[in-house]
Amino acid sequence: MSDDPGNRNLGPLYRRHRSELLAYLTRRVNCRETANDLLQDAFIRLMNSEVAKIGNVRAFLYRIANNLSIDHARRNRVRGINDELQLQDLAGDADPQSSAIAGNTLEHLQRLIDGLPSPTREVFLLARVEQLSYKEIAVRLGLDARAVERHLNKAMAHCAAVLQANESR
User: Fold this and answer.
1) Could you please report the per-residue DSSP string of 55-78?
2) Half-sphere CA count of 137, side-chain side, radius 13 A
3) The RNA polymerase sigma factor 70 region 4 type domain covers which part of the protein (predicted)?
C-alpha cells in the first residue's frame, strides 16, 4: 500500500509513521506528552491538507512535525520572556520585605508549575492565568475539551500533592 492520504483513511499511515515521528518529536521538544500532542496535530494537518499535491507523505509529515516543534519552542520562549517581565515589574513595585516575600512565593509557584509536564502546564496556565474556558483552551492547543479537563485535573492534583507535602513538614 502506498502512502496515499487521499482516501482520508489515516489509520495505515498513522501506524506506519507514528513511532519514528514520535521519536523525532520527543527529541525535538524533550517531552513525550507534548510530542504525542504534536504528533496528533501533524496528522490532523495532513488530513486537512490538499492531498493531491503531496508527493511524499513521509517527508510532508516530517515537515509538519518540524514546523509544529518550532512553533512550540517559540510559544515557550515568548511565555518565558513575558513571565520574566512580570516578575521584574512585581519586584520593582514593593518595599524590600514585600519584595522578598513575593519573590519567595513566586519562586515556589514557578517551581510548582515547572514540575508539570508541558501540555499540562500549558493548560493550567491558560485556565488559571489567562482565564480561558476549556473550549478556548481546546481550540488554542488543538485538544478536545475532555483532554483539557484531564490536564487541568492532573495539574490541580499535582499542586494539591505538593502543598500537602509542604504542610506536613
Assistant:
1) S-HHHHHHHHHHHHHHHHHHHHHH
2) 25
3) 109-159
